[in-house]
Specification:
Rossmann fold; Luciferase, domain 3; GMP Synthetase, Chain A, domain 3; 4-stranded antiparallel beta sheet; 3-stranded parallel beta sheet; 12 strands; about 30% helix; globular; AMP-bd_C_sf; nucleotide-binding; ANL_N_sf; ATP binding
Amino acid sequence: WCTADIGWVTGHTYIAYGPTAVGATQIVFEGIPTYPNAGRFWETVAKHKVNIFYTAPTAIRSLIKAADVDPKVHPKNYDLLSLRLLGTVGEPINPEAWVWYYKNVGNEKCPIVDTFWQTETGGHMITPLPGVTPMVPGSCTLPLPGIMTAIVDEAGQDVPNGQGGILVVKRPWPSMIRTIWNNPERFKTSYFPEELGGKYYLAGDGAIRNKDTGYFTITGRIDDVLNVSGHRMGTMEIESALVANPLVAEAAVVGKPDETTGESICAFVVLKQARPTGDEAKRLALELRNWVAKEIGPIAKPKEIRFGDNLPKTRSGKIMRRLLRLLAKGEAITQDISTLENPAILEQLGQQA
């Protein structure tokens, strides 16, 4: 069962033609994971004896929050023993969510395939092979055979393991994007930029490899790299620090222009408790700033923290960060929001500017 929206590559690959091509029996699901209650995913798995479950980290984090608020919808209350393989897709998964997923949904018996790929790659690129690759929470581990991924600096030079950089693919592969319709020049400049030598496929993500294992960890989109007073930080790093706080269910971090530091950090936070207001919100914001300073360093403290009942997401559970960037800057949202699950949250988060 793939829970993705069928309009995204994961949805049409793992709902439309993938299962059909191999003659698999599958669940096709319309709706959101929290309606009519947040046990809907687990109820569906139990009812239909799902073997393989593939979902997004954001959906997992929202269900962690729901289970903390209402223990009746915790996965331990459902028969999930039919599951043999779990997957995560769409964005990096923070280690805390990975561990919860592994323990509470997979009963510590199901491998988790943390899959890195894109619409443009046409298939999985970096992922553990279930039962073969030793797993590490938060890491998509190693590329599939024949996929030559690497991490380079802004000049296209390889960086050593343990040092973050830009994720690229050095050699072609069968299912790769071939062009952009009626715009081959944009295809070249977007995916094979001259700054990297013109021959490396630019994934658009930052990554780091473990010094010892060589495992890849995706640190977020390179346009999600913040530059605060000359210090470069990935938004994923700050989000993971926030979510590691026992009060926090979900967090999304974006940058906004700042006259003093060039860019400042704006965090949108969903707590495991009711959304705070007034003095309580100020107190909790200060507490979370200090927490991030302790976890990463003072330079990573968010200048602004906005609390929401939830975050703007697609129906498949992916956070729409482009909307958060506009909210952080105080700009009007004029883009299409037809795939947004919860449009009302934009007003709530925008009012706190």
